[in-house]
TrEMBL record:
Transmembrane segments: none annotated. It comes from Billgrantia antri. PROSITE patterns: PEPTIDASE_C56_PFPI. Signal peptide: none annotated. This is Type 1 glutamine amidotransferase. Belongs to the peptidase C56 family. Pfam families: DJ-1_PfpI (PF01965). The keyword ATP-binding does not apply. Residues 8-176 form the DJ-1/PfpI domain. It comes from the Bacteria. Keywords: Glutamine amidotransferase.
């Protein structure tokens, strides 16, 4: 175990239907580097994963969304999947929680369909980002500069396309969290 993220606390915001590997692999990578990681979810004690083509395992929730305060965390990670970000992007509490990380210039990671949450939170405009290909037009419509790359970093925001990109995504997410807050402002 490394000490790169010792003393850092990271929130993973998710609900039922998150892509299993997009929560489990970043969580493990962050913990290996010494971070404390909390799974944050609305109104649940556990959430169920989607594992590529069918329902996956259940994951314990460390904090219910209404009890979580973004100011208590150093960074945020948003896993994808179809169901998870679609539900979260319709939850005003989840959007406010997400926006707070951007207001405080804290690192945020979003993979696959996770950027849907960023679009609805109003924080995608002016950002260079990637995502699952079907989210490309949504990001462009929201004012983001979408590129087809394995991992994209824009002033503390780390985005990736799909589970195949997880190694690069986790590496960059650890790097950005280790760097801490980023000062760049966006319109």
């Amino acid at each position: 175990m490394s000490e790169k993220l010792k003393g850092k606390t990271v929130a993973i915001l998710a609900t039922d239907g998150f892509e299993e590997s997009e929560l489990s692999e970043p969580k493990a990578a962050l913990e290996r580097e010494g971070a404390t990681v909390h799974v944050v979810a609305p109104d649940k004690d556990s959430i169920r994963a989607w594992a590529k083509t069918d329902w996956g395992g259940n994951y314990d929730v460390d904090r219910r969304l209404e009890q979580a305060n973004a100011d208590d965390y150093d960074a945020l990670e948003l896993p994808g999947g179809l169901f998870n970000p679609d539900a979260l992007r319709q939850n005003e509490q989840a959007l406010a929680f997400t926006r707070r990380f951007f207001e405080a210039h804290k690192p945020v990671g979003a993979i696959c369909h996770g950027p849907w949450v960023l679009i609805n939170a109003g924080v995608a405009k002016g950002r260079r980002m990637t995502s699952y290909p079907s989210v490309e037009q949504d990001l462009r419509n929201a004012g983001a500069d979408w590129v087809d790359q394995q991992v994209v970093v824009d002033s503390g925001l780390v985005t990736s396309r799909k589970p195949d990109d997880l190694e690069a995504f986790c590496s960059k997410l650890v790097e950005e969290i280790a760097e801490g807050k980023h000062s760049r402002q966006h319109a």
